[in-house]
Amino acid sequence: MDRMEECKALRGDTEVHYNCAQAVLIPFREVCGVDRETARNLGAHFGSGMRCGGMCGAVTGALMVLGMAEADEAATMALLRKFREKNGALNCAELLKAAKDRGEARKPHCDRMVYDAVELLEEQLAQ
Fold this sequence. Notes:
Helices cover 73% and strands 0% of the residues. By secondary structure, the protein is mainly α. The radius of gyration is 13 Å and the shape is globular. It starts with a helix and ends with a helix.
């Protein structure tokens, strides 16, 4: 199973809730040098924009992976720029408001944010 497939499986799990940060971190656990449980615990409180509508959890998870991969500032800034260009914001509350205004339900919206973050993270790590 590749990282995107694992991410989609996590987001589709109806037995356990994996927040946005966890769904990004867990598939990249080997890049971070941690096991699955540690990745799950690390991202536990970063969903829903750090539990306060701040930075999107998917973006936060991606930034954690870049940090553990020792990516440079250019890689980080590129990921942030591309995510913002694609989705219009980096902030969870803003992203959710825009989704609501479009009539998009929360779960599919958040899934899409996670998949976008994984895709952009894969691009940055490949460079």
